[in-house]
Amino acid sequence: MSKSKQIFSFFKNKFALFCFAGLVACSSTDTGIRSGLPNSGTPSGVEKVLSPNPKGEVIGNGPVRVALLVPTSIPGGAAAVAKEIRNGAAMAMSDFGQNRIQLVIKDTAGQAAVAQTKAGEAAAEGASLILGPLFAANVSAASGAAQPAALPMLAFSTDTSVARRGVYLFSYTPQADTKRIIGYAASRGSRTITAFVPKNAEGAVRERSFREAAGRAGVTTNIVQYDRTPQGIQAAAQQAVQTVNASDTIYVPEGGPVPPVILGALKNAGVNLSGKTILGSGTWESVKTSDPLLQNALYPGRDVSAFNGFATRYQSQFGARPGVQAGLAYDAVTLAAELSRINGAANPYPRTSLESNRGYRGVNGAFRIRSDGTTDRGLAIYKIQGGRGTLIEGAISSFSGS
After folding, report:
1. What global pTM score does this model have?
2. Segment 285-341, tens digit of pLDDT
3. Domain total for the chain?
4. Which pairing describes strands 277-279 and 249-251: parallel, antiparallel, or unpaired?
5. What stretches of 129-229 show up as alpha helix (H) in DSSP?
6. Are residues 92 and 203 in the same domain?
7. DSSP H or E segment with residue 223
8. CATH number of the domain residue 220 falls in
């Protein structure tokens, strides 16, 4: 997911916060939150008693406690993601949350049992909202302690099997970006699409999403599965020659080095790629777009106009370019801080606010939390030209309420 380095004015004045809270047009005459953010009116219940000395890193001193469950001590690449989540959350606290909420960061170590314990700990300490965890199994386990305590969760997993009302996935999902790119391709003339998916759990999710999206768009589908090895991809390409030749579009949702390998294998097997539409997924932010085989390929992604300013500030503060998870954490904490301000400490996160049909806008663009536990997100369409992704259709900037 490539980005430029421009400082976005969202972070330069407090007025822009109102645009975050309500997805409506903002003008210089606005004096506060517009109707995009439903006000819960008189809060119900009583303000939670916050236990002293909560366990974990504590940021802020507001009257509402929010727990962030993140695997800070996990080994491997996930540790870097955990660090980004923590840092993005800390930035939001510095910008908006210091006097509105108290953020308590708890280490799950990436283990489901620990995540459940930490969620129960957060409930006992008086938390009103849980952000995280990161992994699906941890989300499922943590919800077992959070839901009996009526604690809503905004989790960062992409596995929609663990989503439900009260357990909201704040992330980007394979279903959403598949729907976006297949719908776009169909509107531009794609009629027969061959999809290459790996033989694993991710591939199964992508296949289901692809079939659903293609069915809605009236597109004929072909599925080619491959083992994630050079030999496995070569074998799949050779077996798919006739199918691909009869298709006008090729869909390769896996990111990293895989797309050019699959296309190269098809070319070597005798497929004429000229004139065929090549589609990718949101994971193509990790693809080396300079490969000539990817020229003119299309893929969905975030509209990064707001993220770029956030990324510049993040890099200045932490010395590294952030990924999408840092932006998600920033938006989650900003939302938590603003809802607590609007709704009050006694009932800061009612469903009417969390599930606002009008949605919200943050550094990752427009989003809307749904009652089924998933999050709608505005996605742009990019076309690879001159070795880089070029925006050709922007993401929506707001959602219309029902």
Report:
1. 0.84
2. 889 999 999 999 999 999 888 899 999 999 999 999 999 999 999 999 999 999 999
3. 2
4. parallel
5. 136-146, 174-187, 201-217
6. no
7. strand 220-226
8. 3.40.50.2300
